Amino acid sequence: MLKKSVLFFVLFLSACGWHLQNGALIPQELHTLAFESSDPYSEMSMAMRRQLQANNVNLVNAEQGVPVLRINKQITNDEVSSIFKRGREAEKTLMLEVEATVRLANGQSYPINAKVNRTFFDNSRAALAKAAERDVIWNDMREQAARQLITKMVALQHQLKEK
């Protein structure tokens, strides 16, 4: 009975168009900011831009008096986690680390970073399908890292109030 009522409640909320309010937790000082990256058209930059826009952050060109979010470094790595009996790679751990800086209008900078790890089962018999699956996983990891960076921006609110 409880499962049916929970299912009904979820279906009701999704059918009426109700959704969580995006951008409500981002500090007011960061609702308008400039976004910088060494490669503005990289997959990570595009994922970050999408997440900022989804959270109602107004992106503007860098100018005096506007906070700046800059992606400083993106590190990707994959390590073998397990192997098959014959010595071929069976499973890999994909790792993504993103380092960024939020520079406020008053010149203060706050470093933020995000780390995402995923496991990937690598079957060499289905190489083409696994390559496509791997690309999907990397894209999902970038989106998750971008969401983590925005969460860290929300956490800056306590530091902004102290100053």
UniProtKB/TrEMBL annotation:
Signal sequence extent: 1-20
| Keywords, alphabetical | Cell outer membrane, Lipoprotein, Membrane, Palmitate, Signal
Q: Name one Pfam family in it.
A: LptE
Q: Where does it live in the cell?
A: Cell outer membrane
Task: Please verify whether the record's keywords include Lipoprotein.
Answer: yes
Keyword Lipoprotein included in the entry's annotation: yes
Q: How does it sit in the membrane?
A: Lipid-anchor
Cellular component GO terms held in the UniProt record = cell outer membrane; transporter complex
InterPro entries reported for this sequence: LPS_assembly_LptE
**Where does the protein principally reside?**
membrane
A Gene Ontology biological process term: Gram-negative-bacterium-type cell outer membrane assembly
Molecular function (GO) terms for this protein are: lipopolysaccharide binding
Subunit structure of this chain's protein: Component of the lipopolysaccharide transport and assembly complex. Interacts with LptD.
In which family does this protein belong, per the annotation?
Belongs to the LptE lipoprotein family.
PANTHER family on file: LPS-ASSEMBLY LIPOPROTEIN LPTE
**What is the annotated role of this protein in its UniProt record?**
Together with LptD, is involved in the assembly of lipopolysaccharide (LPS) at the surface of the outer membrane. Required for the proper assembly of LptD. Binds LPS and may serve as the LPS recognition site at the outer membrane.
Q: Which HAMAP family match?
A: LPS_assembly_LptE
This chain belongs to the protein called LPS-assembly lipoprotein LptE
Its gene name is lptE
